[in-house]
User: What shape does this take?
Amino acid sequence: MGNNQIPLAVIGTVAIDEVETPFGKRDRAFGGSASYFSYAASFFTPVSLVAIIGSDFPSGFRQILEERPIDLTHLESALGKTFFWRGKYQFDMNTAETLETQLNALHDFNPQLHFRKNPDFLFLANIDPTLQLRVLDQAGKPKAKFVACDTMNFWIEKKRTELQHVLARVDAIVVNDGEARQLAEEVSLIRSAQKIHSMGPSKVIIKKGEHGALLFDEGRFFALPAYPLETVFDPTGAGDSFAGAMMGYLAKTGNTEFDNLKKAIAYGAVVASFTVEDFSLDRLRRLDLKQIEERLAIFRKICSF
Ligand code: AMP
Assistant: This one.
């Protein structure tokens, strides 16, 4: 796919995961923040993926991305191993316990972007903030119209200063409740959002797993529950899929006003609800826009009174 007309780009991890949930275990699962993000976004718009993999990366995983309108021009291949994450969920599946993180190929990653036309929408998915900054230097504002980011405890603990520099340069942040509290060093989510807002992003989106999501947008507030699911099989990638669908919808509509952002968040919640129904990207691979729209219609009924 040529990359001249692609409205959305993401930098993040493309990973090999080892995941254990109360319902089963998978040793070499296809994962990574940018993998889930780009796959979810691709239901709405073509997306360009900026990431690095190692020589151990299975060709079958690459083919999964190739099934979709995902531009892989900036998917770099390095010698050595792919980013590896090992995590476990207990019966409360809202937070993963990280058992091991091997950065591997991330150590050698120095993304060089060569877009013919810069994407208007840019997402800095969960990855080393130093790399998020390098991408911001090349494709951030004013080249991009709307920039959002994610992060996690691993980077908040190790790279807070770099992360602060990222936050100062983005329009929006999408994080989960635990990360928001850790980032802001606050207990209340409302105060956390206010404090994060003062660090840079005008829009703060806080995901609360099975309890839904909150949007703080310069004094305006929106709360959405999660789609009520009977079966949660593997929550890995829910957050990235949420962000991918949200950004994909924003990029497709080209509108980041409050009301459209609410709709984008609803799409995010719906696509994430599919992701958790199976391991890895398996459920997303059996998904289409029709199923997304059907679930959105049910969700809309549940939420209105
Ligand atoms: P989530 O949407 O939060 O469940 O993200 C899950 C994905 O994040 C997994 O597939 C992991 O490969 C990836 N991941 C885990 N730790 C990190 C990290 N420190 N930096 C970037 N990506 C990570």
